[in-house]
Design brief:
- The structure is a single chain.
- This protein has 424 residues and is α+β, with helices and mostly antiparallel strands.
- The protein folds into two domains: 242 residues, Bira Bifunctional Protein, Domain 2 (BirA Bifunctional Protein, domain 2), CATH 3.30.930.10; 94 residues, 3-Layer(aba) Sandwich (Rossmann fold).
- The protein has 15 helices and 16 strands.
- The strands form three sheets. An eight-stranded mixed beta sheet has the order 1-5-6-11-10-9-7-8. The protein has a five-stranded mixed beta sheet with strand order 13-12-14-15-16, with helices on both faces.
- Strand 3 and strand 4 form a beta hairpin.
- The chain is elongated, with a radius of gyration of 28 Å.
């Protein structure tokens, strides 16, 4: 094992790239603020049963992809593979439903799944998601679609599409499960091993399988929309009505079921033409039974999650959301000795006022220091010479136009005002 190689399926985000992530995270916070969502942070690992019960023990995540370990107290713990179940657990444990509803929450942070690494898909990945708990209004479903679209637009992303479906409620799915089982049973030999095992436990999962032979069998399977009860059909109709009213384009996809068992009624997925065959950049839906399943009161809810790594890849492919190129507010050039001591004193004081300040640490020539200031894209250079120091003065040069002026060294306010205004 090479100590200088990162583990497979992980990624380093280095200077020059991290600035794009910072820009995107700021966009996320701005959009969430506009929609009234507040941030909630949960631990990176939870009790394994939370995901087994919350996500579903027949899902790919629980069966194949979780990082699970036993701690020294012999407790089974799992690195979080997704953010909704931990958020709902936190909602219940902290009694967040005691106030006005719906409550709107969002999260942002690393998740972990043992998947086959590919472009924009890692075993440790960053996920942003938001959840609204406490309302069954179809308009809230539409808001959960509109928010990520607003995020994508604010980033300048184009070429994305919304796919929409309803998978009904527990009442609807009883008849639909029976119909799926009856359809797949005669063709069970054509299914992959995982789908054969799920056929009688959870036949909806067969519709989500990516194996070509299973997809070929599933293409003529019954559609869930043919089995919706009147309440679910009316809810789905209202969702489409609101989407049309807000001029949000979408495509009905009756095969869309999503890969998590907690979904009910509305499900949707956003895809990008910039990501090839694995083109999803976010998905979500309604999950009216999850809070109760995890031990809380019956609480309707809806949410959405975005794979940030994949969103960054799509933005990079389109050349969007370029971070602004910035440099130090001022680079302090000195001649060594007492001038270096004075430069260190000034740098310390200006940094304490929130300014990015650099100075030479190797006692290089003035020419070398000026080259360093240029290379760093410094906005100003402050030259502190021995003669200037004796007069408590220094020469401040604007690197964009070359203009120079003398500034006092015993009063930092004038210097702070000049370089601080430019830094903003």
């Amino acid at each position: 094992m090479a100590l200088t190689s990162r583990p497979r399926g992980t990624n380093d985000i280095i200077p020059g790239e991290i600035e794009l992530w910072h820009e995107l995270e700021e966009k996320i916070r701005q959009v969430c603020h506009a929609y009234g969502y507040k941030e909630l942070r949960t631990p990176m690992f939870e009790h394994t049963e939370l995901f087994q019960r919350g996500i579903g023990d027949t899902t790919d995540i629980v069966e194949k992809e979780m990082y699970t370990f036993v701690d020294r107290g012999k407790r089974s713990l799992t690195l979080r593979p997704e953010g909704t179940a931990p958020l709902v657990r936190a909602y219940i444990e902290n009694n967040l439903g005691s106030g006005a509803l719906p409550i709107k929450l969002f999260y942002y942070g690393p998740m972990f799944r043992y998947e086959r690494p590919q472009a924009g898909r890692y075993r440790q990945f960053v996920q942003f998601g938001f959840e609204a708990l406490g309302s069954s209004d179809p308009l809230l479903d539409v808001e959960a679609i509109a928010l990520p679209l607003e995020l994508y637009r604010s980033c300048g992303l184009s070429g994305f599409e919304v796919e929409l479906n309803s998978i009904g409620c527990a009442e609807c799915r009883t008849g639909y499960r029976n119909a799926l089982t009856a359809y797949f049973e005669p063709q069970a030999a054509k299914l992959c091993g995982s789908c054969q095992g799920r056929l009688h436990r959870n036949p909806l999962r067969l519709l989500d399988c990516k194996v070509e032979s299973c997809q070929a069998v599933a293409k003529d399977a019954p559609l869930i929309t043919e089995y919706l009860c009147s309440d679910c059909a009316d809810h789905f109709s209202q969702v489409q009505k609101y989407l049309d009213k807000l001029d949000i384009r979408y495509t009905l996809n009756p095969r869309l079921v999503r890969g998590l068992d907690y979904y009910t009624r509305t499900v949707f997925e956003v895809t990008s033409s910039e990501l090839g065959s694995q083109n999803a950049i976010g998905a979500g839906g309604r999950y009216d039974g999850l809070v109760q399943e995890l031990g809380g009161k019956e609480t309707p809810a809806v949410g959405f999650a975005v794979g940030v790594d994949r969103l960054v890849l799509a933005l990079r492919n389109q050349g969007k959301l370029q971070p602004s190129i910035s440099g130090p507010a001022v680079y302090l050039v000195h001649f060594g000795g007492e001038t270096k001591e004075k430069a260190a004193e000034i740098a310390h004081a200006l940094r304490g006022r929130g300014l990015w300040v650099e100075l030479d640490l190797g006692d290089r020539s003035i020419k070398a220091q000026m080259k360093a200031a240029n290379r760093l894209n410094s906005q100003y250079v402050l030259v502190i010479g021995e003669e200037e120091l004796s007069q408590n003065q220094a020469v401040l040069r604007n690197m964009s136009d070359g203009q120079e002026e003398s500034v006092p060294l015993d009063e930092l306010e004038p210097l702070t005002k000049i370089v601080g205004a430019c830094a903003k």
